[in-house]
Amino acid sequence: MKRVALPKALGWLAPILAVAACDDFPPKGWFVDRTRILGARVEAAGDPDRASLAAGERGTIGWLVATTAGTPAPRLGWSFATCARPAGNFAEPRCEEGALSSGRGTADAPVVAMPFEVPPTNADELLVIAAFCPDAPPELEPRAFDARCSNGVMPLLASTLVALRTPNKNPRIADDAVRVDGAVIPPAAPGTPCASLTPVRGLEHTFFFRFEEAQREPDETLTVSQFVNGGDLDRQYSVLEKGAAPSDADVRWNAPTASAAGVPVDVHFVLRDGRGGLAFARRTVCALP
Amino acid sequence: MTTPCLVPKGRALALCAALALVAGRAVAQEPALVPPSLVRADAVSDPRAGAAPRESVDLEIDIDKEGAVLAVRAVGRPEGDPLATAAIAAAKSFVFSPATRDGAPVPARVRHAVVFEERVPVTASFGGTITDREKGAPIAGAEVVLSTGARTTTGADGKFRFDKLAPGPVRITVSAEGRVTQVVEETLGGGELTETKVQLEEPADPEAFGATARIDPPPRETTRRSLSGDELFRMPGTRGDPLKAVQLMPGVGRQAFGSNSVVLRGANLYDSQVFAEGAPVPLLYHFGGLSSFVHARALEAVDVYPSNFSTRYGRKLGGVIDVRLRDPRTDGLHGVLDLSLIDSSLLVEAPVGDKLSVLGTFRRSNIDAVLNSAQNTADLNITSAPVYWDYQSVVVFKPSDDDKIRLLAFGSRDRLALLFKKPNDVDPSIRGALEQSLEFHNVQLGWKHRFRGGAEQSTEFTYGRTDTSEGFGNVGAGKFGLDTLQLRSEWTVPVSPAIRIVGGVDVLSSRINGQYQGIAQPADEGDTPIGISGQRTISIKAVEWIQQPAAYLEVGMRPFDGLLITPGVRADYNDFVNEGSIDPRLSARLELDADTALKGGVGRYTGHPQESRVISPIGNPAIGLAHSTHATVGIERALGERASFSVEGFARWMSDMVRPTPGGRPPFYLDDQDGRVFGGEALLRLKPSGRFFGFVSYTLMRSERRDAGDSWRLFDRDTPHMVSSAGVVRLGRGWETGAAFRFTSGTPYTPIIGSSYDARTDTYVARRGAPMSDRNPPYVRLDMRLEKKWTFSAWALAAYLDVQNVLNSPNREGFAYNYDYSQRYGSSTLPILPSLGIRGEL
Fold first, then answer.
1. In the beta sheet, which residues pair with residue A183?
2. Distance CA B7, CA A280 (A)
3. How far apart are CA B823 and CA B825, in angstroms?
4. Contact at 8 Å (CB) between A27 and A1?
5. For B100-109, B128-137, B367-376, B409-418, which range has the lowest pLDDT when averaged over its residues?
6. What are B758's strand-pairing partners?
7. Which of B468, B446, B463, B553 has its CA nearest to residue B509?
């Protein structure tokens, strides 16, 4: 008898188990210890709920940027390029054939909006690669997806895909979908003083994210990513599987040690439908002793 | 009147014709009639076997006026008589000068007698001298038993002799009271006396290793390393598992994490094959190396051919491991019960009557009893800890001294199931239930027959069924079944004492049936994609029949004593890729003296691609066969009776190997990869005898790959230096201890030099540096074993402690990374692993 050679599990089981076995290695993805991109929301011009575009149509990609606790949002120079999604089962995000379109600009975090127009293409999906530099313009090389900041800082590199053939809507996060210890966390503007934020006292808390059927289209699996820039989260992801009844995702959070004046902690919830649709909610709580 | 007799070339052929009617007219009418005369007669082959009397066949032959034979009839012989048939066949090729009348040619009818002379069988004689190894004195009264059943005892001068034996291979068992029994194999030449010298030794003490020493005939392969006898299950760190001991052999790379096979002389895992009794099996080890798939005590031997294997094997570019199951014992009921923390096993064997004997084994893992309760955490639930079982059964029936029929059945199952209670923080696709199982069963019916004259044939028919099942959340799920039918038939014909011909067929027919949906299978060699969420999914549903017939021929030639040259050729065909191959191979062995032999081999080898690389829509149907050339030269030297030393240099050049396209782009795979391997091995070995056995080996090797258009790079399992040593000593009073040490260079890897954020999946995509430009730290491992055995009158009990990785070396193999690849952590292999067990032997 010969070896069963058709897709055999051991090939991908080994890397999976290797990754899974490293659950306790810090730092975790949920901890914002530097300026990071946390997601990209695609919105069709005039229809922000729509995440899919057509060739020639205009839209905007809003990149959600998070910073460390107490750090003001930096001014980011950005540059992007678009091309058809490269073929291949393990394709890396690069415009090997060159960019179909490109753009550059400057924006203030926390959301960097890049207006663009879908170039003529027969592709099912459009790859958008982007580079960000704090306080400087980046030079983006799309074929290798490499970039350089003029001030010598390491650039942030990020990519996303825009659906061109399959219609899709962005999910929605209701204002009251995010709670801490059962209390709704209202949105707050960046820089709001700790005393005006939702207070949380002590160390052990729980964030709740309310999954709702209205958030998704049929047969979608929703994944919410949670991020904080203070304290420790129990995990980064919560998933509402396709076909499963919606319920609350609860994530335990150990708040950071705080002085009497309190420590503001940003909490980000990024909701994805797995097909390119995305919504995010940024909240800030005040951690108190 | 009779015609003159013709006896061509001394052969018993007489021509005696009666032309009564024609001759009568010739006398009455002048001038006389001239009868036809035989001008050419080929030799008539005698169809009879063995001894036979002189016989004559009368033929009536019609001849035309050209002298050609028109018709031949046997007179007085029944229809289908073999002698008449042979005589008629020969007479049809006779050529006559035509009969004439008045000088003009005319048709004629003649009587002709074909004589078959008395047939005296060609026999062989065999004799020799039995002496004491230490003193050199002849041993009187030693019993010499041949595999034909003949037996005798030596005289006062230590000599023995057999006459009237059938020529061909024979196995000789020599025993004498107070001496270690020896088994020797010889090939007897027809019409001559073959002599041998056998030295028997006294056992060093009652606890010495090796009750029976086995001397095999010179191998057909350049390099064959065999484990047998005590070496099979006494190697430290193997828990008595001979297939784990294989990893200590030179040229055998250390087992890759999660792999169920081994790397032989720098070949890809897929390019080497494990056989059980000549039939391919899908795995060598349970669950990445805990244990092999076969019970050690059911083994006759394990043969490792790291390259330059004979024409008997094919379809692979690398090496071969062949596991041979032994016959059941025929001297009563025996059994072995082995209980350890890792697994438990039972072996039972017994004769059933005079001609039938049976053996059966079963083994099951015990790991689940420990893991199910201890390893469940808040994040991970082991719903089914690694469970494996395997079995082997052997039924042997010997209807005669020349026939052996074996019915084998063996199989194995591995299953693992996990439940990830929450999505992994590095990649949310890693969540949910993970399940994987592999199960196979083989049934083999074999018949071996020895013909008079020394020829042998062995035929094995094997049916196998393999089922794989795998699933992990959204990552992938699939089920495949594989049915295989294999026919192997091999004939060995000793044409003369100097020439032996081996020919055979090896027909493999496979049916694959199954489906899979999920991420694509990563490459076998080279970089492995790490991110899962960003990968495209593939889907396949397949039902395929694949035919792989092959035939081979070898000729073993001894142009003079001490030199064996074995040229051979193997022809293969694969209807899945619609391509065939013809691979010539040559090996030679020159015995310079009784202790030293030079050997070498060169040959072409063909590798058949994995079906998943060829089948549409996930593979490339244009992929063909891969090829390699193996070359090995070496020298072996016996150092006294117990030790041996060998040095070998080897090279392998590979071409047309399958490699994945960059990024997994269509057509997903191409067959344009080249490979080259160069190296040398040295092995010093002390056979199990006396109170100690062991070996030390060193391998120096470099293995490289080159994709089309690229420069050479390192093979991802390249290990330039490998040092292995193992030793076992019996301390007395039933105590036995041993240690095994293994050092290998670290394997190369491609470093990760950065990452970019994938906003669609909230994961990071690694950015890679130069391929295989960095190397893991060396692998160092020390294993130890301690055993105490109590021997009673009818049975024995042993308790043992086998400790793997005594030094608890981390032995890093690759890395795990944090979420954005900015930090990495070495992935370690097995930590220190003690295994305590008891074994009862009946």
1. A180
2. 108
3. 7
4. no
5. B367-376
6. A159, B763
7. B463
Q: Which residue of A has its CA nearest to B417?
A: A13
Residue pair B359/B294 in contact by the 8 Å Cβ criterion: no
Instruction: Check residue B10 and give its pLDDT.
Output: 31
| Residue B212 pLDDT | 42
Higher confidence at residue B13 or residue B781? B781
Q: What is the pLDDT of residues A196-210, one digit of tens each?
A: 999 999 999 999 999
pTM for the model stands at 0.76
pLDDT band at B548 (very low <50, low <70, confident <90, very high): very high
User: How far, in Å, CA of B149 to CA of A44, rounded?
Assistant: 92
> How many other β-carbons are positioned within 10 Å of the β-carbon of residue B90?
19
The band of B529, judged by pLDDT with boundaries at 50, 70 and 90, is low
Cβ <8 Å between B758 and A159:
yes
Q: How far apart are CA B569 and CA B572, in angstroms?
A: 10
- Residue among B292, B288, B304 nearest B410 (CA): B292
When pLDDT is averaged across residues B380-406 and rounded to a whole number, the result is 84
B579-584 long-range contacts, Cβ below 8 Å, gap at least 24?
B579/B624, B579/B625, B581/B606, B581/B625, B581/B627, B583/B311, B583/B314
The residue of chain A nearest to residue B378, with distances taken between CA atoms, is A234
Q: How far apart are CA A174 and CA A177, in angstroms?
A: 5
Segment B155-176 mean pLDDT: 86
Question: CB–CB of B520 and A238 under 8 A?
Answer: no
Tell me the C-alpha distance between B665 and A89, whole Å: 6
Q: Do B758 and A158 touch (CB under 8 A)?
A: yes
> How far separated are the first and last CA of chain A, in Å rounded?
67
Contacts 24+ apart (CB under 8 A), B87-91: B87/B44, B87/B57, B87/B59, B87/B114, B88/B59, B90/B41, B90/B42, B90/B43, B90/B44, B90/B45, B90/B114, B91/B59, B91/B61
Distance between CA atoms of residues B276 and B411, nearest Å: 11
Q: What is the mean pLDDT of residues B371-385?
A: 58
Count how many pairs of residues, chain A against chain B, have C-beta atoms within 8 Å.
242
- Nearest neighbour of B466 by CB, restricted to A1, A10, A63: A1
Find, among B171, B195, B188, the residue nearest to B454 by Cα: B188
Cα(A44)–Cα(B427) distance, integer angstroms? 28
Burial class (CB in 10 A: 0-12, 13-18, 19+), A19: buried
**pLDDT single digits (tens) A179-193:** 999 999 999 988 889
What is the CA B353 to chain-centroid distance, rounded? 31
What string of H, E and C letters represents the secondary structure of B391-440?
Answer: EEEEEEEEEECCEEEEEEEEEEEEEEEEEECCCCCCCCCCCEEEEEEEEE
In angstroms, the CA B420 to CA B429 distance is 11
Mutate: best of A89, A129, A143, A273, partner B, most B CBs <10 A: A89
- Given a cut of 70, is residue B206 above it in pLDDT? no
CA distance B613 to B270: 12
- pLDDT bracket for residue B215 (50, 70, 90): very low
Contacts of B218 (CB under 8 A, 6+ apart): B564, B589
| Segment holding B164, helix H or strand E | strand B159-165
Distance CA B205, CA B690 (A): 7
pLDDT of residue B14: 29
For residue A252, what are the CA distances in angstroms to A160, A204, A235, B689? Answer: 29, 7, 8, 65
Helices (DSSP H) in B571-716: which residue ranges? 611-614
A14-33 pLDDT per residue, tens: 444 544 444 455 568 999 99
Tokens for B374?
A: 């201890």
Tens of pLDDT, residue by residue over A141-178, are 999 999 999 999 999 999 999 999 999 999 999 989 99
Asked if A16's CB is within 8 angstroms of B475's CB, the reply is yes
